[in-house]
Structure to design on (362 residues):
């Protein structure tokens, strides 16, 4: 199985990618709207196909990426029937199973933080995704969104801490950067729900948390009741349109050699070659019309680069040119892409070059 834990820093939210290595089918648990591009890049790079997004509950601190992922990748939106949302493709109830390839998740209702909280347990019961029902040495609050301390106490004791002691537990959030815990640890050390904590102890603890409401609550809850569909098209994240680009999980927009050749033929992009002068004129040569600006000189010479045309950065393998994009972005350039695979790929795919020493005609 493929497993990745992804993080949203502003809300300290974890998104989980689960993929079946046999069939390539994958699901995301609790995707975040602002990270749809990142998550789609990771799925592509790992060769996985997103079939569904699963929510552990209606979040109050971030907007889900479920709707946008459905638009981009065709995934289905799954969440609890008790969540009261619109736009879901399948409403889940306690005891349901969600299959992806040869694997599946078991659905357990764990209300108390909200009415519609679900915990997803892997088929082999080695991992469970607890949402905000159980956090690492903590738990979700119970003072809004139909919260109930009594209900949460029963949910955690009966549905989560009843799992095998070595079952790993992955929460929806952690505010200290902790990533994983286990049933045995939380049974023993959870200060609210572990040890000998009784229902009365827990209720006493939860009624005295005194927390402010999440900053984004007024925006996030209504948006999440629509599964993250924005109220207007204008709110959709803008994607570059000047060429077919793909975004890498490493955070770089890339252009394939074929697409660059088309843009060069149309004459509407500028190629900045950031290699050293000797590489520009020897070996692989360079792309016709490319301007040589070695990476160490790029910042000082960025005034030589036109700002009204997209920039494609090129180097030998695509590594230095990726760094060039970071520098150009800081210098205020917007339309940027890295030539995927650099001159190595350009040459391997037999696109024309100029100035290559050993191909120069006599
Ligand atoms: Fe929550």
């Amino acid at each position: 199985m493929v497993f990745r834990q992804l993080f949203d820093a502003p809300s300290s939210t974890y998104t989980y990618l689960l993929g079946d290595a046999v069939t390539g089918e994958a699901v995301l648990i609790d995707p975040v709207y602002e990270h749809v591009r990142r998550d789609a890049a990771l799925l592509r790079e790992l060769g996985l196909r997103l079939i569904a997004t699963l929510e552990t509950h209606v979040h109050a601190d971030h907007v889900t990426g479920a709707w946008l992922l459905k638009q981009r990748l065709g995934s289905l939106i799954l969440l609890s029937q008790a969540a009261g949302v619109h736009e879901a493709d399948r409403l889940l109830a306690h005891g349901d199973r969600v299959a992806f390839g040869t694997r599946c998740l078991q659905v357990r209702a764990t209300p108390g933080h909200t009415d519609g909280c679900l915990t997803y347990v892997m088929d082999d019961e080695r991992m469970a995704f607890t949402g905000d029902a159980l956090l690492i040495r903590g738990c979700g609050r119970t003072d809004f969104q139909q919260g109930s301390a009594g209900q949460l106490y029963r949910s955690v004791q009966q549905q989560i801490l009843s799992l095998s002691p070595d079952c790993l537990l992955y929460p929806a959030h952690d505010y200290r950067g902790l990533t994983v815990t286990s049933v045995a640890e939380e049974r023993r050390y959870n200060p609210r729900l572990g040890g000998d904590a009784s229902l009365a102890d827990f209720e006493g603890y939860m009624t005295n948390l005194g927390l402010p409401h999440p900053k984004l609550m007024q925006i996030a809850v209504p948006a999440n009741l629509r599964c993250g569909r924005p109220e207007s098209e204008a709110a959709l994240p803008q994607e570059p349109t000047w060429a077919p680009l793909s975004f890498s999980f490493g955070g770089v927009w890339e252009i394939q050699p074929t697409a660059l050749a088309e843009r060069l033929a149309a004459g509407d992009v500028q190629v900045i070659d950031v290699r050293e002068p000797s590489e520009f004129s020897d070996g692989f040569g360079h792309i016709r019309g490319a301007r040589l600006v070695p990476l160490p000189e790029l910042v000082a010479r960025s005034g030589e680069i036109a700002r009204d045309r997209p920039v494609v950065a090129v180097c030998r393998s695509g590594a230095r040119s990726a760094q060039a994009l970071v520098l150009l972005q800081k210098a205020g350039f917007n339309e940027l892409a890295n030539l995927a695979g650099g001159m190595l790929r350009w040459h391997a795919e037999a696109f024309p070059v100029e100035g290559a020493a050993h191909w120069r005609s006599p």
Observations:
- The chain has a mean pLDDT of 95.
